[in-house]
């Protein structure tokens, strides 16, 4: 819910061809937009025509007339065009909003669309621009309701949506299996401030608490202390600093631990306690680190207390303070572990940044009843976790004009648990988790890359009467190889 | 952490005048007998505690030998030296520690003392200095244990210790009555960090939580942001700033309130949220204010959550972040109200700064078992709340060398609740809270100042053979006048300001200057004269019909109660003792025509008397002379005759012309010699004399002698009689008892009479039967 007013200058060129980002615009309807402090998230519903292979038994009546060569075939194979529903979600920096709106306007064919659902703190600022550019009426939706709706949707529909972060473990990310019953849970949204929301069912949630010490405080105090105005840079500073030079530790007061109270010597007794009386200058890095610890610990403690008070064991963290930042995920996780002694786990969401947009879209699509369907993540059209994180992809970040995408296909059938599963909540379909097993991961990635040539050949061979098949197969090879390469660096 | 440690205080000290502004012997009093030292060294303040004995004069009465009975007064008055125990606590800035240690060393006589208990973060820093200067071994005690021990002690022993702070209310401080059961409670100690401690019993506490965002964070971040290094200055900056220019409010994001979430537009959405993106410079004041809000709100929320999780409703706040700073008390209170919607109140403690020192002292004194005694705050020797607060006393603070003191006297008797209180936890002795009632405060402060000359004269006159009495009396005058002036500006200095506290403070100051009983001779005289009329009075009463007699007895108590030297209107009458009886006759006539009285439930009382006798009556008596002898005793005599046992409760120590237990013993003996009814009562143990445990003209039913409580219980007391303005009007007017009660007084103050809707010498006769108790008559009180 943070909204920035003073943008720093950035390269406004879009580095990806827009038609690879805003796909299927020609059939798009039901637009929704979530404008945050720095990022805009656009959502639309579209239909995709694609080819499906169908099989059909030969008619017994016509069986005689068919060619000799085919007569011994069991059934007929035909390629048909099928239309399926797909949800598109695109995330880009607010700086590109005008360019993007222009592109959408130019490609928007569907004239039934009259309204765009909007949410997020920035919605009111860009309202006029959107209405002018797109010729659509901006219909504002409650931010928190959208957030919760979106959260429920991803938790229900995307396997491995939630994960636990462990900085020093073999695998930084441990993904959680989808629970048959996602409720109740606690959502801690760390935007400029903090909102702590208890979600009890699809339609029932309550903001049970909050705090003014949030991402805006890190940013604001950080800017005052270090003269560094960019949020990402502040986090970079923090990741390099030593908080112990600014914070007063238990051992600074008592010379060691305070055993009778169970306080270890390294525990922070007072954030910024040393700067109260020391006349020396403190480094930017150290102050940023101390600030980060202070805020993360505070939020962690509040989250734990609310979780305990309401007897909730699942606590999800989101908001721009968290979004794709391993530094903050680490400090929040550390804090939660400290305060609950491991009883509560800090959970993060892969698509946390899209929650508001998804929710706003769902609000607009209520007549289509999207919750009655099952949806699946389309891996081909979706960017991975932290595709735009500066820590993971410094190169990409430098270009700054990066777009993150999520596509979800509506599945033809609603999917549920096999009723015979002994314990649906602990069921994990996969035998081996390659994120946790580096050797196995190496092997299988290699294996799939090796097999790629064969797959391409097979694909071309499957469409002998289509001359452009070879070209398409080549595109497939590139895309899949790129995915494999991405997975090698980001197994998550 | 409990206390902030200035590790490098020597380097960053601002210069200050190191001269001690009070003569040290007025601060470190009674050092010659001092033993059991304890010291709590915090980040900026040192708190010293010691136990000492005070010799002071007490007036004793003694019957003359029966052999020498002819021509001499009723009893002998002698002034004796008595030794009582006193706890001294002194608080001063760390800068003075060396000077103070030197002074102590020079005056320390007691050589038994080998050890000094020490606590606080600074204890290890000054260990070597203390050991060298005092020649005592420093024995470190756990900081948190000391803090909790001290907290339990003040909550148990100091009435009005805890208070609620309300910045914009008529009275900023609302003091809480002492609870019979202080546990469990939550203590939130805001030092450099925050410790949240759940206290379940005297010995059981647990640190259930804490936070690194505390006073050190305010100080540290504040110093970085504003380049202001002093904590007090940062608070001053904060009190002048506007947080809205730095903080992002809900309305800054949503243009107004966020109604569906119940968030108002003015709520802080993000502390320092505006400084994230605005390029402008922010003022020091605004940043300090924003920081203060951020920290106070955070602590407030944490405290509320822990209180809820552990189901605790009493939350006390302490630590240097809070200590004497109205700014932080206000923001913490605001935060608690916001987060609990008023369900939990933020409570602060008057002597919060002393908790560690008190606790360390108690640890060292465990063999003396200090918890088995009751202790009372000595108003004469104690500085009031916030005596050193920069906001309250800017002048004093500027001098910087200020000392704050607390003295507690060990009471001879352990004090407990009257078992007949209907609801001990809601009992408030005082009828009027002068801290909340500005007009009443003005009047009474004026009244006590006016009366001061008379009190001084009386004090001098009471010691005719002591030439330095005039000088001491003058010192008394200065001290008490200074207290009155302090109370005019800081009515909350000693808890709720009440007529009782003003009277008690005067008694403490008189004792302080060795005027233990200025009225002893007057009382003696009055008693002497009244006793001469006793038999005549009894005889005339016996001649009346039953019904006439009941009324005459009540009238007698009321008329007798007029003879009150504490009352302005009476002391101005300047009647010589010789004409007391004339006055008495006059007043008898005066009252007989006055019904219905201002509060008059006499008919119900009479109706009740027609029924079965009470099992046992507890009678809190008032003045000596006519009051006790011609008013109370005949009334008691009638009760005894009806078959009711009587317990007469009188003051343990002197206060004005109130009859003391010692005097009453002699008087009843004398009366018994003349009156077979009283004699039989004493002999058969149906008339008992007990001490109230108090030396006040008023009465606190929650602090009474343990023996009294025991007697009341054993005798199945079913009637409580409270007599006099101090005991039945200034205090206990609204007290609810679980048995029948009778409150009788004559209002001898025109202002108070006016307040209660009557006039001078109006009579209050309030007979009450608790709801649900069967009685013979109606329980209703019918004001005129």
Automatic annotation (TrEMBL), chain A:
Q: Which SUPFAM superfamilies match?
A: Actin-like ATPase domain, AF1104-like
- Which GO MF terms are attached to this record? ATP binding; hydrolase activity; metal ion binding; pantothenate kinase activity
| InterPro entries recorded | ARMT-1-like_metal-bd_sf, At2g17340_3_helix_bundle, ATPase_NBD, Type_II_PanK
Name a single GO biological process: coenzyme A biosynthetic process
Q: Does the keyword ATP-binding apply?
A: yes
Q: Please give one Pfam family short name.
A: Fumble
**Swiss-Prot/TrEMBL keywords:** ATP-binding, Coenzyme A biosynthesis, Hydrolase, Manganese, Metal-binding, Nickel, Nucleotide-binding
Checking CDD domains in the record gives: ASKHA_NBD_PanK-II_Pank4
Q: Which Gene3D superfamilies match?
A: 3.30.420.40, 3.30.420.510, AF1104-like (1.20.1700.10)
GO cellular component terms given for this protein: cytosol; nucleus
Coiled-coil intervals: none
Cofactor(s) needed, names only, are: Mn(2+)
**Cited NCBIfam families:** panK_eukar (TIGR00555)
Q: What is this protein called?
A: Pantothenate kinase 4 (inactive)
State the organism of origin.
Answer: Sparus aurata (Gilthead sea bream)
Which gene codes for it? PANK4
TrEMBL record, chain B:
- The organism's superkingdom is given as Eukaryota
Coarse class of the primary localization is: cytoplasm
Query: Where in the cell?
Result: Cytoplasm
The record's keywords, sorted A to Z, are: Acetylation, ATP-binding, Coenzyme A biosynthesis, Cytoplasm, Hydrolase, Manganese, Metal-binding, Nickel, Nitration, Nucleotide-binding, Phosphoprotein
Q: Which reaction does it catalyse?
A: (R)-4'-phosphopantetheine sulfonate + H2O = (R)-pantetheine sulfonate + phosphate; (R)-4'-phospho-S-sulfopantetheine + H2O = (R)-S-sulfopantetheine + phosphate; (R)-4'-phosphopantetheine + H2O = (R)-pantetheine + phosphate
Q: Which InterPro entries match?
A: ARMT-1-like_metal-bd_sf, ARMT1-like_metal-bd, At2g17340_3_helix_bundle, ATPase_NBD, PanK_long, Type_II_PanK
User: Which biological processes are named by the entry's GO terms?
Assistant: coenzyme A biosynthetic process
Pfam families in the record, alphabetically? ARMT1-like_dom, Fumble
Q: Which cofactor does it need?
A: Mn(2+); Ni(2+)
GO molecular-function terms, A-Z: ATP binding; hydrolase activity; metal ion binding; pantothenate kinase activity
* Domain Damage-control phosphatase ARMT1-like metal-binding residue range list: 450-759
Q: Which GO terms describe its cellular component?
A: cytosol; nucleus
- Please report which protein family the annotation says this sequence is part of: Belongs to the type II pantothenate kinase family.
What is known about what this protein does?
Phosphatase which shows a preference for 4'-phosphopantetheine and its oxidatively damaged forms (sulfonate or S-sulfonate), providing strong indirect evidence that the phosphatase activity pre-empts damage in the coenzyme A (CoA) pathway. Hydrolyzing excess 4'-phosphopantetheine could constitute a directed overflow mechanism to prevent its oxidation to the S-sulfonate, sulfonate, or other forms. Hydrolyzing 4'-phosphopantetheine sulfonate or S-sulfonate would forestall their conversion to inactive forms of CoA and acyl carrier protein.
Complex formation: Homodimer. Interacts with PKM.
Query: Know the name of this protein?
Result: 4'-phosphopantetheine phosphatase
Taxonomic lineage per UniProt? Answer: Eukaryota, Metazoa, Chordata, Craniata, Vertebrata
Gene from which the chain derives: PANK4
